[in-house]
Design a protein that fits this description.
heterodimer, A: alpha/beta, 8-stranded parallel beta sheet, 8 strands, B: alpha/beta, Aldehyde Dehydrogenase, Chain A, domain 1, Aldehyde Dehydrogenase, Chain A, domain 2, 2 domains, 7-stranded mixed beta sheet, 6-stranded mixed beta sheet, 18 strands
């Protein structure tokens, strides 16, 4: 049966008090993560990263190098995990596929006229199908923010449902681009629409618009996931993307996931970081926890 | 070779112990009385132990002041008032108060650790709430010291003289600041008695007062039990009694000062209503409920201990509340990740347990979070009671612990009536998206403080105090000054 937009299925109360959210988020940031917890947390962070390059000037060479880095984060330090996935444009998927071989690192491809989404349904579907055919395991779509802000929620819902269908076996991440949604009430509403329309993951941002993955926004989306899980027993994944570039901020995000959703979400099956520079800061912190000293950034490869 | 992408379906991740260091604090084995800027032995030569409620270890021995010691302290305060403090300009007084504030700030970490050791409150709260607020009270009132004519326009404000101040154990340093700062700014001298279970931070404050060069006798700190407090209340040369504590003791004080010249302010108990409407931001309201009742183990006179939830969202709110309670960490007050620390004393724990027993016997349904609590020390699990009415003892009497009662309501009139149906009237919380409803309720709820879409927010500029049996007089803000002026 075709899914349709039905607000009554969504939790009737989605009012968000921004001041209260800020206060709650500040509490997560006072959590002290030390010793073993820190080490384990940093390993988890590395394993949840979608190593990303999404630029007009991307080259096959750059994608290949990133794919190697995805599997060899810092070989002088044995026992490190790989990242979760690489995230590229559809035109780079086949190159990544080849570079990754039979690695378990997944390929995520943005689609639907990323990052603006300003195109027709046909083109967005074709964009998605192309990425899947090229070998993408995951599709990161963007919602039509213009339609959302205009109040055309059914349009947004139907579009997500259609893209989900076009994904086939690929998992669908729905980017809300929260920096353009203006309020946390909108973020919550867009989260509910995406989840009910078939998103496997909801994702904050494209990385092209500021502010991106603030903890306030991620908190609001995690609460939507929690409410949906409490209603249906179905788990939805979360991907904050853009602006998380330090190990400390990443750990605070994990604290938030743990305290809201619990341990079952603490794996890359259900939680990801969309980031390009985060991995090296985490590696630097891990090396520091061994030696007690910070190494020069020059010891960590930039790919 | 490709490495394994370790996608465990279930990860266990918890926070390692993260205790705040105690290596930087200095505690004496024995504390004397602080009179005339000197440490003096109590005339009884008697001392009592102060313990860490989380471990039951003795932290120090504290002097037990007798009537004679209190008399000595009041005489010192009177002499300092007549000869020095009342003659000093407001600007000069302000300098001393600013200096005390800065010195407290410099030693904030030490104060926070000692406060948590002595009172059982989590270090997160003593570090982020108690100590900074205490400093801010001194900063705020220091600014008023030379502007009293502007605080009381068309009057000629004058100090009262010697203020006797008796404070409780729930916010030991903060209550000392609430009392001392406005009294000094207004030009009074002080005899202060901390609560017997939590004397240490007041005595550390005495060290700062001595170091600050405040003239001898302006602030005197006498430690002891109820008899020491009674000696202050009954002393004929005290001009003002400021008391924060239980309603029962407040009534005794009120009787004792009747017919004397003593001015009084009393800040007493509460059984405050926290009201959640169906259009409230539910997740933030749940945080507000948690903060309202579990902040400082519920040892808060304005704690939101009676929850009223509109019936059509009650199931949802209670479900979310229970889930949120499970994520609270109960345990070592010095661990930076602890949300709920130790109950202040064995006596208080017994009181709380007595009420929990009463609640069960009354037929209310109990829910406690599934956390483990340390075997040593005084701890209580966060507790909810549902299925209660206005007639239940646990909704009528102040429990002063992490125990919440939950009632539902249908109409606004009903909730206003029930919220006001208590001898207390200290605080209330209102959670709704509608501004007009907030203003409607604030005019009808008989409570001294009403928070809208938040709870337990304190600031030196904002007056605090109660209606009915929650006391009279206001502390904080300009109102707090007038309590020390004639």
């Amino acid at each position: 049966m075709k899914k349709t937009y039905n607000p009554s299925l969504m939790l009737s109360n989605t009012r968000i008090d921004k001041v209260g959210v800020e206060e709650r988020v500040a509490r997560f940031q006072t959590r002290s993560i030390k010793n073993e917890s820190k080490k384990q947390g940093l390993h988890m962070v590395l394993n949840m990263i979608d190593l990303t390059t999404l630029e007009g000037k991307d080259t096959p060479g750059k994608v290949q190098q990133m794919c190697y880095k995805a599997q060899h984060l810092h070989d002088v330090h044995p026992g490190l995990p790989t990242v979760a996935a690489v995230c590229v444009y559809p035109s780079m998927v086949s190159i990544a596929r080849k570079a990754l071989g039979n690695s378990s690192v997944k390929i995520a491809s943005v689609s639907t006229a990323f990052p603006s989404g300003q195109s027709t349904r046909e083109i967005k579907l074709a964009d998605t199908k192309f990425a899947v055919e090229q070998g993408a395991d995951e599709i990161d779509m963007v919602i039509s923010r213009g339609k959302f802000l205009a109040g055309e929620y059914s349009f947004v819902f139907d579009e997500i449902a259609a893209i989900k269908e076009a994904c086939g076996k690929a998992r669908l991440k729905v980017i809300l681009e929260t920096g353009e949604l203006c309020t946390l009430d909108h973020v919550r509403m867009a989260s509910d629409i995406a989840i009910h329309a078939g998103a496997d993951f909801i994702k904050t941002s494209t990385g092209k618009i500021q502010p991106a993955a603030t903890m306030q926004v991620t908190y609001t989306m995690l609460m939507a996931i929690k409410d949906y899980y409490d209603q249906t027993g179905i788990m939805i994944g979360m991907k904050p993307a853009g602006g998380i570039s330090t190990a400390k901020l990443a750990l605070h995000n994990l604290v938030m996931v743990k305290e809201i959703l619990g341990n079952p979400w603490l794996s890359n099956e259900w939680f990801r970081f969309g980031a390009s520079s985060l991995a090296n800061d985490v590696l630097m912190q891990l090396m520091k926890s061994e030696s007690g000293l910070y190494q020069s950034p020059d010891y960590f490869s930039i790919d | 070779m490709a490495k394994k992408n370790t996608a465990n379906s279930q990860t266990e991740w918890d926070y390692a112990a993260s205790p705040e260091s105690t290596s930087h604090i200095r505690l004496e084995k024995k504390y004397q009385l602080f009179i005339n800027n000197e440490w003096v032995e109590p005339s009884s030569k008697k001392y009592f132990p102060t313990i860490n409620p989380a471990t039951e270890d003795v932290l120090a021995e504290i002097a037990w002041a007798t009537d004679a010691d209190v008399d000595k302290a009041v005489k010192a305060a009177r002499k300092a008032y007549t000869e020095v403090w009342s003659k000093m300009s407001g600007a000069e007084r302000g300098k001393y108060i600013y200096r005390i504030a800065r010195m407290m700030q410099e030693r904030a970490r030490e104060f926070a650790v000692i406060e948590s050791l002595d009172s059982g409150k989590p270090i997160r709260e003593s570090r982020d709430v108690d100590v900074p607020l205490a400093c801010n009270h001194f900063f705020y009132y220091a600014g008023w010291a030379d502007k009293l004519e502007y605080a009381m326009p068309h009057k000629k404000p004058e100090a009262l003289g010697v203020a006797g101040q008796i404070i409780p154990w729930n916010f030991p340093l903060l209550m000392a600041a609430w009392k001392i700062a406005p009294a000094l700014a207004a030009g009074n001298t002080v005899v202060l008695k901390p609560a017997e279970t939590t004397s240490l931070t007041a005595l550390k404050l005495a060290e700062i007062i001595k170091d600050s060069g405040l003239p001898p006798g302006v602030v005197n700190i006498v430690t002891g039990y109820g008899d020491t407090g009674a000696a202050i209340v009954n002393h004929p040369d005290v001009d003002k009694i400021a008391f924060t504590g239980s309603t029962n003791v407040g009534k005794i004080i009120q009787r004792a000062v009747a017919g004397t010249h003593k001015k009084t302010t009393l800040e007493l108990g509460g059984k405050s209503a926290n009201i959640i409407f169906d259009d409230a931001p539910i997740d933030q309201a749940v945080e507000g409920i948690i903060n309202g009742i579990f902040f400082n183990q519920g040892h808060v006179c304005c704690a939101g201990s009676r929850l009223f939830v509109q019936e059509n969202v009650a199931d949802l709110v209670i479900k979310k509340l229970k889930a949120r309670m499970e994520s609270l960490y109960v345990g070592d007050p010095l661990d930076k990740n602890t949300d709920i620390g130790a109950i202040n004393s064995k006596e208080q724990l017994d009181t709380i347990n007595k009420y929990i027993k009463i609640g069960k016997a009354e037929g209310a349904e109990i829910y406690q979070s599934d956390c483990s609590i340390p075997s040593k020390g005084f701890f209580c699990k966060p507790t909810l009671f549902t299925g209660v009415s206005q007639s239940h003892v646990i909704t009528q009497e102040e429990i002063f612990g992490p125990v919440l009662t939950i009632q539902t309501f249908r109409t606004i009139d009903e909730v206003i009536q029930k919220a006001n149906n208590t001898p207390y009237g200290l605080a209330a919380g209102v959670w709704t998206d509608k501004g007009s409803r907030i203003f409607n309720l604030t005019t009808k709820l008989r409570a001294g403080v009403i928070w809208a879409n938040t709870y337990n927010k304190f600031d030196p500029v904002s007056p605090f105090g109660g209606y009915k049996e929650s006391g009279f007089g206001r502390e904080g803000g300009v109102h707090g000054l007038s309590a020390y002026l004639k």
